[in-house]
Amino acid sequence: MILVTGGAGFIGANFVLDWLSASSEAVLNVDKLTYAGNLGTLKSLRSNPKHIFARADVCDRTVMDALLSQHQPRAILHFAAESHVDRSIHGPAEFVQTNVVGTFTLLEAALAYWKALPVADQAAFRFLHVSTDEVFGSLSPDDAPFSETTPYAPNSPYSATKAASDHLVRAYLHTYGLPVVTTNCSNNYGPYQFPEKLIPLVIGNALSGKPLPVYGDGRNIRDWLYVGDHCAAIREVLAHGRLGETYNVGGWNEKTNLDVVHAVCDLLDRLKAKPAGSYRDQITYVADRPGHDRRYAIDARKLERELGWKPAETFETGIEKTVQWYLDNQEWVDEVASGEYRKWVEANYALRASTLSTQ
Ligand code: NAD
Ligand code: TYD
C-alpha cells in the first residue's frame, strides 16, 4: 500500500480518488482534518476496503511510527500542509508547526521505518514530498520561468515554511540516504478546492451576488494547472522519478488574476446567466496582499523530457470543467463552508475596503 498525508484536502483527495479509480493498491490516508480537510470529499470511498483513513497529526511521532509499522507502506506521499498564503500572513505559527515540524517528524518516522526494511524493500521505497513553485519567489515580467535549479527565495510565511520542508527532505537523502523525490507545482484548480482560494471563492461570491475581490491591480500572474494533471504528474514521479531529484510541475498557463476572474465570470454568464448584466459587474478591487508575489511561471520541461508527462487540460478546458463542477456540487460547498470558514472570510476581507470603483 501507499501512505498519503493530507488526503482529505484539495489535492490529496483528488489524488486518492484518482489513484483508487485506477489501481487496486490500497491507500492509508493520514489527515488531521483541519478546516481544510473534508471527509465529505471522500464519501464515495466509504465502503471501499482499499481506503483506510486515520485521523492523525503528522507532528505526532508516536502515531506516525505506529501507522508505519502496522501498515508497512512501500511509499509515503506527503501532501499535508497549511497551504493558504493569506492565512500564513494572519497566523504563521501553524505553518511552522505543520509544514516544518510536521515534515521533520514524518521524515524521522520514515527514516526509522525505512532502516528496518529488508534491503530489497529499502531500494524500492520512496518518500515523495509535494511542494510548491512559491519557494522560488517572484519573477519579473521578462524573467525565464522557474527551473529545478532556480535558487530558493521564498517571500511569505507559507512559502518560507514549504522551502524549509524541501530543504529538510533534501538533507535526509544526502545525510541519511532516505530515498526521496520532490515535486514543485504551480497553482492548482479543480473540483474540491476549499472555497477560500481564488477560483472557488470567485464562483461562490458570483453566484451569491457578492463582490469578487481582486487584490491590488489584479495583474499578478500565476501559472494554473488542473488538479488532475498534477495528480498524474505525481503518479509518474512516484513510478519513474529519479531518486533524489526534484521535478517542476506546471501547466504553461500564465494568467493574470484578472484574466482568471474574467474567464470564470464569462463561463458563469454562459452556464448560469443572471437576469441582467454580467458577473464581471461584481468585480471589486481591494487592498493588496502584503508582500504579494508578482509572477510565478514554471518550466516543466524536465518532467516532460524524463517522464513523458504533459498536462492533458488547457486552461480553457480545465476552467470550464471546474466551473461546471461547482455548479453541480453546491451541496459540497455548503457542507465545507462552516462557521470557521465564515470567520476567516470576515477576518481576511473586513479590512480590505474596496480600493477602486467596481469594474
Ligand atoms: P489543503 O489545504 O487543501 O489540504 C491540506 C490537507 O492537509 C488538509 O486535509 C488538512 O486537514 C491536512 N493537514 C493539515 N495539517 C495537518 C497535520 N498537521 N497533520 C495531518 N494533516 C494535516 O492543501 P492542498 O491545496 O491540497 O495542497 C496539498 C499540498 O500541495 C501542500 O503541501 C501544498 O503546499 C502543495 N501545493 C499546493 C498547490 C495549490 O495550488 N493548492 C500548488 C502546489 C503545491
Ligand atoms: P490563492 O488562490 O490564494 O493562491 P496563491 O496565493 O497561493 O497563489 O491566490 C491566487 C491569486 O489570486 C493570488 O495572486 C492572490 C489573488 N487573490 C485575489 O486577488 N483575491 C482573493 O480574494 C484571493 C483569495 C486571491
From TrEMBL:
<dbReference type="GO" id="GO:0009225">
    <property type="term" value="P:nucleotide-sugar metabolic process"/>
</dbReference>
<dbReference type="InterPro" id="IPR036291">
    <property type="entry name" value="NAD(P)-bd_dom_sf"/>
</dbReference>
<comment type="similarity">
    <text>Belongs to the NAD(P)-dependent epimerase/dehydratase family. dTDP-glucose dehydratase subfamily.</text>
</comment>
<keyword id="KW-0456">Lyase</keyword>
<protein>
    <recommendedName>
        <fullName>dTDP-glucose 4,6-dehydratase</fullName>
        <ecNumber>4.2.1.46</ecNumber>
    </recommendedName>
</protein>
<keyword id="KW-0520">NAD</keyword>
<keyword id="KW-0946">Virion</keyword>
<dbReference type="Pfam" id="PF16363">
    <property type="entry name" value="GDP_Man_Dehyd"/>
</dbReference>
<keyword id="KW-0167">Capsid protein</keyword>
<dbReference type="InterPro" id="IPR005888">
    <property type="entry name" value="dTDP_Gluc_deHydtase"/>
</dbReference>
<dbReference type="InterPro" id="IPR016040">
    <property type="entry name" value="NAD(P)-bd_dom"/>
</dbReference>
<feature type="domain" description="NAD(P)-binding">
    <location>
        <begin position="3"/>
        <end position="322"/>
    </location>
</feature>
<dbReference type="GO" id="GO:0008460">
    <property type="term" value="F:dTDP-glucose 4,6-dehydratase activity"/>
</dbReference>
